[in-house]
Each structure stands twice: as C-alpha cells, then as structure tokens.
Amino acid sequence: xxxxxxxxxxxxxxxxxxxxxxxxxxxxxxxxxxxxxxxxxxxxxxxxxxxxxxxxxxxxxxxxxxxxxxxxxxxxxxxxxxxxxxxxxxxxxxxxxxxxxxxxxxxxxxxxxxxxxxxxxxxxxxxxxxxxxxxxxxxxxxxxxxxxxxxxxxxxxxxxxxx
Length: 163
Prior knowledge:
It is a single chain. By secondary structure, the protein is of the alpha+beta class. The chain has a single domain, classed as Alpha-D-Glucose-1,6-Bisphosphate, Chain A, domain 4, CATH 3.30.530. Helix content is 27%, strand content 44%. The protein is built from 4 helices and 7 strands. The chain has a 7-stranded antiparallel β-sheet with strand order 1-7-6-5-4-3-2. Strand 6 and strand 7 (110-121) form a beta hairpin. The longest helix is centred in the C-terminal third of the chain and has 21 residues, at 134-154. It is globular and about 50 Å long. The mean pLDDT is 90. InterPro entries: Polyketide_cyclase/dehydratase, START-like_dom_sf.
C-alpha cells in the first residue's frame, strides 16, 4: 500500500523544519506517541535508530525507526530552491513502513509538506488487515499533518484534547 498526503503550513520553511526536527515537540502533534528515543545515533541524523511506542486506545504498538535520508544534512540557512528530504523506515510486528517527507519552500511565509507513505505487511492476516484498513491509514496520516499544522501555526497541543 502506498499513498501521498500534503498540507500547506503558514510559516516559513526554516521554522517548519526546526519544529519537525525537534524531538521535544513530537508529542505535541503526534497523537498517541508515548516514546521516541534513539537507541543509537542522534535524533534525526541518517543511520540513527530509535525505539518508538504509540498508544491508541487500548492498543499499544512498538516499532524501530531508522533515519535513511536527511538532505541537506545541515538544516540551517537552506536556499529556497532546495527541497528538504527526511526519510525513515519503521519496522514493527508484522509490518514495514517507509516514510518519505519533502518540505518545500512555497513562499516567504508558506511551506508545503508532502509525505509519501509505503506499507508492507507480513503474513496473510496482516496483509488482509492492511487492505481492509487502507482508508484508516490515509486518514491517520492526514490527521497527523493537520495536528502538526495546528501546533506549528497556533501552538495547539494534541495532549490537551483541544481538537
């Protein structure tokens, strides 16, 4: 399963990149995030592996995330013509996911965030669940992007239950 979602954020790209790259902010916009800790390496750098734990209702999911691409490596003073690429692979029980984010300067006070998600599932039951729940995966990706936009533009924290 593969799909792309996108959203415009009314902030300069440099500010958006700083907010996305700061692990302190992740729980404020990534619903259900319980833990995101590097096992080796430094958060956000290529090759870094992190333990990621989500809690959604009574369901808890644990996975390993590996940063596979960050371009440019230095996220300061990036020319407006350069697209920021931030790619990760996430592996959990019965599934593999590639997350490929592009953060694009769309104007002096506007940023376009495009996110491509690709999922592969192990075993017949997981593959069947993936097909049956494809719309749910897309909906959740769009929700994460809307939550990030609300956090970045207005300071809305999803842990406060305000949206």
